[in-house]
Amino acid sequence: MAYPMQLGLQDATSPIMEELLHFHDHTLMIVFLISSLVLYIISLMLTTKLTHTSTMDAQEVETVWTILPAIILIMIALPSLRILYMMDEINNPSLTVKTMGHQWYWSYEYTDYEDLSFDSYMIPTSELKPGELRLLEVDNRVVLPMEMTIRMLISSEDVLHSWAVPSLGLKTDAIPGRLNQTTLMSTRPGLFYGQCSEICGSNHSFMPIVLELVPLKYFEKWSASML
Amino acid sequence: MSNSFSSTKAWMHGFLAKHLQFHIVGTFIISLGTATFCNFAVAEPGNKAYADFYRNYDSMKYFEVKSKAGIFQSAKGFEI
């Protein structure tokens, strides 16, 4: 989950999110490179009396400042495309879970074996127990097996929503009349929080997502108890 | 009234060119230095941290610790 004064991304809980973290480091390094270059040039221009007011042509410098940005863009695009294609690899999920966005809660359906479905509402601040997280806790969490590939099918019953879990690198729009798919694989057990990420009305900020990743035998016990 | 406009060409000393030559090198040193610093101060320690974390990682051990802390709805305590 996010913590106060956080500057960077949340710790990664899936291999894809680890790749995204490394990509973010790489791209931010390029951003700092360009920003420091521009800042230095601006400070140079502001601290000199020397001018050249009769430039007629500047073929060499124009070639450099065309080719160099193109190279930088390619250096950003190649790792980006690599991760994009990695997200779409065939990975044979062991489980499929459907989630529907509503105003203003999520509902989940586990229909691979039996028909299990439930709604997941935010716990109001006045009903939180000590230690629980404000605006993030829900009454029924999405319990899933860890270290297994899970297919998430996401849609909406009313307006646009978006199902997002930052530590897993997931954000998929929930669009009425459309079924979007994403793949989830957590390397660690624990609780992973997310929030609706597409404006959907007055309580858009109050429909969080909580994933509870546990070993498979606990997941099986939980799903049997929920039927 | 005499025209005081001079028709001789100004004699340039190449100060701007020398200034630019010196500072272009400085610009690249600073920007590449910033990028290198970002890489070795932020990116590499991050990569190392993840590699070290997962080298001897035992997910069941972490699950036991978190379960005993009582955070899971589906696994109260650590009973099998």
Structure commentary:
The complex is a heterodimer of chains A (227) and B (80). Helices cover 32% and strands 26% of the residues of chain A. By secondary structure, chain A is of the alpha+beta class. Chain A folds into two domains: 15-88, Helix Hairpins; 95-226, Cupredoxins -  blue copper proteins (Immunoglobulin-like, Sandwich). In chain A, the strands form three sheets. Chain A has a five-stranded mixed β-sheet, with no helix packed on it. In chain A, strands 4-10-9 form a three-stranded mixed β-sheet, with helices on one face. Chain A is elongated and about 80 Å long. Chain B is mostly helical and 80 residues long. Chain B has one domain (2-75). Chain B is 64% helix and 0% strand. Chain B has helices spanning 15-55, 59-68. The longest helix of chain B has 41 residues, at 15-55. The radius of gyration of chain B is 33 Å and the shape is rod-shaped. The mean pLDDT of chain B is 84. Chains A and B meet through helix 1 and helix 3 of A and helix 1 and helix 2 of B. Chain B: It is found in: Mitochondrion inner membrane. Chain B: Keywords: Membrane, Mitochondrion, Mitochondrion inner membrane, Transmembrane, Transmembrane helix. Chain B: One of its GO terms (biological process) is oxidative phosphorylation. Chain B: This is Mitochondrial cytochrome c oxidase subunit VIc/VIIs domain-containing protein.
